[in-house]
Write a structure and sequence with these properties.
five-stranded antiparallel sheet, 3 helices, binds adenosine monophosphate, 142 residues, alpha+beta
Length: 142
């Protein structure tokens, strides 16, 4: 995997406003926040995308995400928040190291703006797609 700015933050070569660190996970304030308290939670494992992350690192991130989210909303007073996780440049991923955004949403509207052009899942398409995904899952040992 190519070197990223987050790799350099993990190694302490670049400073960050750290809020959490354990053996597998680091969390720090986003330098370009969408709203006050915007926090990034990253595995120390150098994986580019969520689908490339080990189960061990994924579990370590999942274990602390709720705790960090609780602290962010308690510290900021934000009434709501989004957790965002981008994979691939087409999906707005700019830093090629897995990261979860915790983005407080405030009554003034600051936070994540979402476009959600919902369609409607047809029954036959749903059956076919779900079967394909189940098939992939059955062949994936993690
Ligand atoms: P994404 O579009 O999901 O890849 O988001 C990458 C995020 O990393 C952006 O929100 C950036 O503001 C943030 N970011 C980039 N460099 C740094 C840095 N040195 N410290 C903290 N956050 C950063």
């Amino acid at each position: 995997m190519a070197e990223t700015i987050f790799g350099r933050i993990i190694r302490g070569e670049i400073p960050c406003h750290k809020v959490w660190e354990d053996d597998h996970v680091l969390a720090f304030l986003d330098i370009g926040p969408l709203s006050r308290g915007h926090t990034l939670v990253i595995p120390k494992e150098p994986a580019e995308r969520l689908d490339q992350l080990s189960e061990e690192s994924a579990a370590a991130v999942g274990r602390v995400l709720p705790r960090i989210a609780r602290a962010v909303i308690a510290a900021t007073g934000a009434p709501a928040y989004n957790v965002l996780q981008n994979n691939g440049p087409e999906a707005h991923q700019a830093v090629m190291h897995v990261h979860f955004h915790i983005i407080p949403k405030y009554p003034d509207g600051s936070g994540l703006g979402i476009s959600w052009p919902a369609g409607r899942l047809a029954d036959d398409e749903g059956r076919e797609l779900a079967a394909r995904i189940r098939e992939r899952l059955a062949g994936d040992r993690g």
